[in-house]
Amino acid sequence: MHEDPGLSRRDLLRGRLLGQFLGRLAQAATNKVQAVQEAVASSAASQAKPADPDPTASGAMGRRLALPIHRPPGAIDEVSFLAGCTRCNECVTACPVGAIVHAPAKFRAAAGTPMIDPHTAACIMCTDTPCITACKPGVLRADQPRAMGVAWIQTMACLAHTGSFCTVCSEQCPVPGAIEVHACKPTIRPDACTGCGVCANVCPAPTNAIVVMPLADRRTRSSSSGHH
Amino acid sequence: MLTIDRRTFVKASAMAAATAAASGSAHAVSLHVLNNQPEGSSLTWQKAPCRFCGTGCHVMVGTENGRVVAIQGDQKAEVNKGLLCVKGYHVGLALYGKDRLTTPMLRKDGKLVPISWDEAIDIIAKRIADNPKAFAMYGSGQWTVGEGYAGNKFMKAGLGSNNIDGNPRLCMSSAVTGFLSTFGVDEPPGAYDDLDKCDVAIMWGNNMAEMHPVLFSRLVDRRTRGEKITIIDFTTRRTRTSEQSDQVLYFKPNGDLAIANGIAHQLIKNNSFDKDFVEKHCNFRQLGAKPDDKTPPDMLGVPMTFDEFAKAVEPYTPEKVEELSGVPADKIRMLGEMFGRRDLKINSLWCMGMNQHTRGTAINCLVHGIHLLSGHFGKPGDAATSLTGQPSACGTVREVGTLCHLLPGGRLVANAEHRKEAEALWNVPEGRIGDKPGYHTIELFKRFNTPTDQGGDITTVWVQVTNPGQTLPNLQRNFREKKNLPDKFLIVSDVYPTATTELADLILPSAMWVEKNGMYGNSERRTQQWFKMVQPPGEARDDCWQLIAVSRKLMDMGVEGMKDKDGKWIFHTADKAGVEVPIWEWPHYYDTNVDERLFEEYRPFTTKKHKHLAPYSEYVEHRGMRWPVVQQPDGSWRETRWRFSEFDDPFVAKGKGFQFYHSVSKDDKALIWFRAHELPPEVPDLDYPFWLCTGRVLEHWHSGTMTRRIPQLHRAMPRAYVEMHKDDASRLGIQNSEVVTVKSRRGEIDLPVWIGGRGNPQPGEVFVPFFDEGKLINLVTLDAYDPYSKQPDYKKCAVTIVRKP
User: Topology of B690-803 in CATH?
Assistant: First the structure.
């Protein structure tokens, strides 16, 4: 059975651009979502410029192109992460579902570091977090929040929001309370959502209705502040 | 609010889908393309009814380079007005699973080996010719009209055998007996238009939001237009339908009989029944041996007076009904008052909840009865309508009559006059058609799974377009015993490997849906047509061609039945110049439109029961037409939405108001039945303390053989589960997702528990969907059936839930 949803990064960005126009969502979203949107808007704007066939080429555009990257759960802030990650591959092999992959070249300095492409293979939110256990340099840490990003529903593509019936995203969401269903219509609670991407992977709408965004402003939380 | 309008969005989506199609990844992403066809696209668009359920939505199918690459809802279709459900949007992918069967295969020494079509046809013809009486066909409501007609003619007129049945026996036959017992003729008098006009919709054990989502959308969308509708959900389990309902009334399994009698009791006690309608248009009936007859009670019953009827329902007081059904007495009063009101339009809707029921005929009759008694009949919005689960359960199996007791056009094999008419229309000698019904589904498979010398007189079964290896109840007894009986031979025509092909001795690869010409008939009597759009893969060929080729081979072998009275082959087909077209040869099968030829031969059968059909060409033009379709003085063809009502039905005499012109009592009146509440054959006890109910889920159709090969649907609903109430789970110490054993007296399977899932059973009940080939719940189900419809009860048997050590 063909399991590949077949969405390229480019499709993803197209979806994100579209997401920009969904004003209602932006209104409802928390600061977290807005921050993500702003980050994407800037990166998407730079993407929208004439194609740059070689993403490693230097120049003004290259310097501005800091794509937010979807890290595995428990990641510390991005600067420390990049500095600390040894690209040892241990988290990649530890992941039971193959969701952790190496960042491709277009991520520049981050190329080769672990990331998740939630639209291709979602993190399933293992309770025993084998990726964190496997991380020797400690850039994935048990004392850090599990949240990697945040998902939102493009209601115009969602079956439940457009006159049909579907609750698959909420049924398969591994995070209790992250997707609520009222009157047969699912809504995502951004404060509970971890951005694992399961919902996007299972959405059966003809045009996938779920967009998952990486966290743009990930900070390292001090151990004493407790868990997410 | 939204800063992007629908049009822009739609364009973007269409482009995305088209881009994906162009890049060759069309089958990794959805085939769905929204309203606008992108400029410069070379897609060809044609109409077809959806392959899946009995709703009968139309889709537009986009093809390019010999492949289906896009699907959109058909805005010209009255049924769905452009909307589809999640299955419909992905229907095109049903053709492109990786393991399509592409070559005939014969089991030799336990292994399947490819053989040629010629060999396959030879083998089947020899098995049949050796012992035609031991041969049976088993089809389904997924047979097109032409296929079902060819199969029926082949068996009944050709072999003189009535051993042909179909899976609507497991699905709709109690609805059929309900219509026959009440109106003397099958199929709903009303139409989907009643959904648009009713004030109250009553779901009788019917999870319409999940099973007929497009129709449920059509109903609840009225609320967004400011219309007031009241939805009442009679159910044993909280479902999506319950979420949209104004009243959710939980009843104990089998309690529906008491509820319906309770409503009749209220109508009479409050003197609020429709005296005028009842007096003019209804008689009363009950079960009973006829005075001069020693045969057991039949489904036509014996007359009773109104007073006798009133006395019979008298014990069904609201309090008594509460005791029997669990529905509170004041709710029964509320329903009685509601039915007593003439100013409301009430539409009752049901599907498997009422049909898969050992008292299925009884509850169907009772629901028709309360509609007739209260006069909620035959006006737009006032109707009792059964919904079907398969695309052509009505059009093919019920109308063409591919059941062991039927002949085309509503005729019965047991009726001498009906046989004579069919023999005349088929131009075969008198006496060709057997005068006794053949074996119904359960009996047929029981005999096939019984040693030949112990009464198992069916030795060869040919299955087309269905999957009994997954869907028969009590599978071990009714399907799997065959494994140890080497003289039995199972032939299966299908498109994918299934639980049925697993035991097949000969597998024939079939063409499906838009890989062939076809016609379907949906729940509301709508006959639909489509053309072949793409080639089937490999050596897959039409089911109808397979039948025709076997028939021709039998004729060549000298089997007399394959010729009519004039010595012509029963499927003789000529072109316009009168020259025979060799349709038994695959390269010539599409030299002519065999589907049209079979349909036009079938058409004259339909007038007897006033199920008139228009010529084939009309269906090419329309998105289906609802019979009776009658020609107007101006030459046009007019469909009928409300049968038996003077204002719409052309066969009702002027001034009659209503006329039940196939009345059982032969006086143009319908029958209001009394049927007592009875206990089901198996009820929970100390050893097996839970009720088991089985059913479907939105994402998967029937046994899942098509939908589980569509990645989007498979990912959305990957495997079966057992739903249970949280109190039962905590009492037994069961956690969500824990794998438990569901066990009955017949079999057991392991399933993960889903607490607070899509549906929530009442305490003491569990629910398991049947789509999952890896988790065959029908090893557990009971094969007790309704005595009149012979339809088994998949909705209630006793099980226990055992924790794994």
Answer: Barwin-like endoglucanases (2.40.40)
Q: Domain total for chain A?
A: 1
Q: Can you give the pLDDT at residue B196?
A: 97
Calpha distance B519→B43 (Å, rounded): 23
- Nearest chain A residue to B757, by CA: A171
From chain A, the residues in CB contact with B97 under 8 A are 1
Positive or negative, the Cα torsion across B185, B189, B191, B194? negative
The answer to the question of residue A3 being in a domain is no
DSSP state of B569: B
Distance CA B151, CA B170 (A): 19
B128-181, pLDDT tens digit by residue? 999 999 999 999 999 999 999 999 999 999 999 999 999 999 999 999 999 999
A128 min Cα distance to partner chain B (Å): 17
Looking at 3.40.228.10, 3.30.420.40, 3.40.50.20, 3.30.9.10, the CATH number of the domain B173-386 comes to: 3.40.228.10
Kindly determine whether residue A23 and residue B3, on different chains, have CB atoms separated by under 8 Å: yes
The pair of structure tokens assigned to B341 is 């009101």
**Per-residue pLDDT, B423:** 98
Residue partners of B239: CB distance under 8 A and separation at least 6: B207, B209, B210, B233, B758, B759
Reference B351, options B670, B784, B795, B770; nearest CA is B795
- Give per-residue pLDDT as tens, B585-632: 999 999 999 999 999 999 999 999 999 999 999 999 999 999 999 999
Q: State which residue of chain B sits closest to A159, comparing Cα positions.
A: B86
Please count the residue pairs, one from chain A and one from chain B, whose beta carbons lie less than 8 angstroms apart.
110
Numbered ranges of CATH 3.40.50.740 in chain B: 105-169+392-589
Count CB neighbours of B617 within 10 A. 12
What is the rounded CA–CA span in Å between residue B256 and residue B508?
43
> Do A167 and B240 lie within an 8 Å CB cutoff?
yes
CA distance A59 to A53: 13
Determine the residue type at A41: A
Report the pLDDT averaged over residues B53-81. 96
Tokens found for residue B676: 């007592």
Mean pLDDT to the nearest integer, B664-669: 96
Outline where chain A has alpha helix (H). Answer: 9-21, 23-28, 31-48, 60-64, 78-84, 90-94, 130-134, 168-172, 198-202
* φ, ψ dihedrals at B335, nearest 5°: -65, -40
What's the topology of domain B105-169+392-589?
Rossmann fold (3.40.50)
A156:B9 CB<8 A: yes
- B710-749: b (≥16 Cβ within 10 Å) or e: bbbbbbbbeebbbbbbeebbeeeebeeeeebbbbbebbeb
Strand spans (E) along B698-738 = 722-724
Distances (CA, A) of B435 to A135, B602, B778: 78, 21, 33
Tens of pLDDT, residues B441-451:
999 999 999 99
Q: CA angle, corner B195, sides to B661 and B252, nearest 5?
A: 90
